[in-house]
Here is the input.
Amino acid sequence: MKNDHSLLSNIRIVLDHTSHPGNIGSAARAMKTMGLSRLHLVEPRRFPHAEADALACDARDVLGEAQVHTTLDEALRGCVFAAGLSARRRDLAHPCMDVREAAQRLVEIATTQEVALVFGNEAYGLSNEELSKCQLMISIPTDSAYTSLNVASAVQIMAYELRMAVLTESGAASDTPKFARLEDIEFFYQRLEETLIRIQFLDPDHPKRLMPRIRRMFARTQLEKEELSILMGILKQINLHAKHKVD
Here is the structure.
């Protein structure tokens, strides 16, 4: 089996539009106690900040190495799988797992490839658009009378579950297929939408919910690298035939 630090280095924690610097520091501390070190921040309101340093305690090295991005796409670049935390059910949502099952899934893929765990803003969480960039939704089963969970506490729960999953990982890395990178899948969605408009299957003025449904469909399949190449080849041929028909 891969040692736990080597495996955990393939897992990045992404905090999206975090408002309070203290939560960033507390999340860094939660990560380090469980052996996680890769922190990515998407447009944090205040960072670097003294409060983040104070609450990180001896995890200031995690803060020092944190990467700051302007978009979620940037933060996910290089990953083949992303799971987003959400406290509420969504219409047209991706598949939802509990924390333990999700952690096992993330660790399974992280034996050979990079994955991300995405946490939203303290007040409103992840938007539907941001969650659509993930392949899995995770819900922490809080009490129905009070579902509000501090983002750093959510990081601690998931970090613990990830560590426990690593400790029980069987090490069957050879059985894990090579998945397509998320940035390549996003490019595929872009080209697919353009193609559907070109062949008049999608009306851009009245798109309804076609693309969100397509995203959800492919999220369930988890595209492998070779499968994505096949789909891109199909799109290329469709566009060639559409062009010849116009000409």
Summary: The chain has a mean pLDDT of 92. The two ends are 58 Å apart (CA to CA). The first strand starts at residue 11 and ends at 16. The chain has two domains: 4-175, 182-246.
